Amino acid sequence: MAELRTDHRVVVVGAGIGGLVSALLLARRGLQVTLVEAAATPGGKMRQTRVDGAAIDAGPTVFTMRWVFEQILAEAGGTLADLPALTPLNVLARHAWRGHHQRLDLHASREQSAAAIGEFAGPAEARRFLGFCDQAQRVYRALEGPYIRAARPRMNALARDLGPRGLMTLAGLGPFASLWSSLGRHFHDHRLRQLFARYATYTGSSPWQSPATLMLVAQVELDGVWSVDGGMHAIAQSFARLAERRGATLRYNAPCERILVQGGRVRGVVLAGGEEIAADSVVFNGAPQALVDGLLGDRVTHAVPPLPVARRSLSALTWSAHTATAGFPLARHNVFFDDDYHAEFDDIFRLRQLPRAGTVYVCAQDRSDHDSLPEGARERLLCLVNAPADGDHRPLPPEETLHCEQHSLALLRGCGLQIDWTPQQVQMTTPQDFHHLFPATGGALYGQATHGWMASFQRPGAICRMPGLYLAGGGVHPGPGVPMAALSGQRAAATLLGHLDSTSRSRRVATSGGTSTRSATTAATP
Predict the structure, then answer these.
(1) 524 Cβ partners below 8 Å, 6+ apart?
(2) Helices 17-28 & 232-245, crossing angle to 10 degrees?
(3) pTM, rounded to two decimals
(4) If you average pLDDT over residues 230-243, what whole number do you get?
């Protein structure tokens, strides 16, 4: 791909994966790129924490949609060899239920998963699982192009781009069906319905309010899940190094205090301490609500619509631990279910409290398909329970977090897992902590919850109401998750470059009377 070799200056605010991708691709095209990040390291939510001397991934733990990174790296003149080693997992996740001695593994092979489900719940459920996979694949194929890869989907355009076959696929899910109700047509065993309903939480949503289209996550996982040498944080570090090699300047411990606006468009940023960095464009890789709340200055508060608290996605209560385990044979990814799944989401989204009987996810970061640790050996764990995103206005009372911790440990013990749980070996992170790490979120980890069939059309896209300002990150289209946030960074870079090219062409072609054609940059729409 040819470089533009332009003097166009870009400041990227935020070194999450969306900002890193934007900085990389813009620098690759020859723009003058400076990335500023408040933290001491890149990654954003792809962060690490140190517990008892061990570095533990404390954010996203699953690497999927490898094609996204292959495509971005190819555009940047790189390959997957620029990333840490990726190891495909055969066991996608291990599942257990309170009071049931059986465990269920989902595998990268759908036939292997069907065989496991047959042993777990009977041959009829195995057949239903294969039918579910067929429908999930059709939904994914229908939506990948017109939704996932689209700059920002519009209802009319989506209906046109889907075509008759795609429309029939979505119609087959049932008009306005929720994921939970749709799963009831596939599975008779309540535990399987519970298992696959967890896909809603990948977008920070409730299975009872999210659309049935989220079943496409099944196809995403069947396309491959990988473990990353060095953890997910190493992915962010690799993109940061590659961006620097392509000419971007990365500045850490450099929080952005204000986006400068002059003449109706952005003109740079002001860092904490008063330093100004002039720019012709700014890419903001953070929560869009931070703009609304005035955290980047009062000149950009109108750039995007506000996100009400009620529409925030899930937050989490997490425990990063470096400790010994016994009993349960952990895989890399493990999910432990309690009895009343509906009550978990009612507690979070209606009562706005920690679930009294919440699902516990455990990522055992020293395990892969066949790893077994010596008895008594310490390992790195991330344990997570879903929580309401109220960290900006309702700090969780200590007794509530203690009860959740005790209940979660009791659930793990009830499924056979014993953890040596001592304070020096465990670090807790609350929704309030996540809000401090990611301002204007309330601790929401996925932006806007995908509740209702219109939610997918309500996220901002790369363009906002402020000319010269572009958006990236999990809070904008196509949504949360590492590959989706990476795609948002790619879309922000492509949109900026498209506007720059349009401006360049318009300057070369004068209209009658000698005035220049209005550029797409100054005609940005919300």
Answers:
(1) 463, 464, 465, 466, 467, 468, 499
(2) 20
(3) 0.91
(4) 97
CB 304 within 8 A of CB 64: no
The whole-number average pLDDT for the span 311-320 is 98
For residue 356, count CB atoms less than 10 angstroms from its CB and return exposed for 0-12, middle for 13-18, buried for 19 or more: middle
For CA atoms 498, 440, 230, 64, give the dihedral sign: negative
CA 192 to chain centre: 24
DSSP annotation string for 50-64 = EETTEEEE-S---B-
One-letter amino acid identity for 355?
Answer: P
The average pLDDT across 140-162 equals 65
Q: Are 63 and 227 in contact (CB under 8 A)?
A: yes
Q: Residue 76 carries which DSSP code?
A: T
d(CA 9, CA 269): 12
CB-based contacts of 251-254 (< 8 A; 24+ apart in sequence): 251/34, 251/35, 251/36, 251/37, 252/15, 252/37, 252/39, 252/40, 252/41, 252/42, 253/37, 253/38, 253/39, 253/40, 254/36, 254/37, 254/38
- In three-state form (DSSP H/G/I as H, E/B as E, the rest C), the secondary structure along 411-478 is HHHHCCEEECCCHHHEEEECHHHHHHHCCCCCCCCCCECCCCCCHHHCCCCCECCCCCEEEECCCCCC
User: What b/e sequence results for 302-327 when a residue is b if at least 16 CB atoms lie within 10 Å of its CB, and e otherwise?
Assistant: ebbeebebebbbbbbbbbbbbbbbee
* Per-residue pLDDT tens digits for 460-478: 999 999 999 999 999 999 9
Residue 379 and residue 18: Cα distance in Å, rounded?
30
| Cis preceding linkage at 478, omega within 30 | yes
284: β partners: 13, 471
Q: What pLDDT digit, counting tens, does each position of 340-387 carry?
A: 999 999 999 999 999 999 999 999 999 988 767 877 789 999 999 999
pLDDT of residue 504: 63
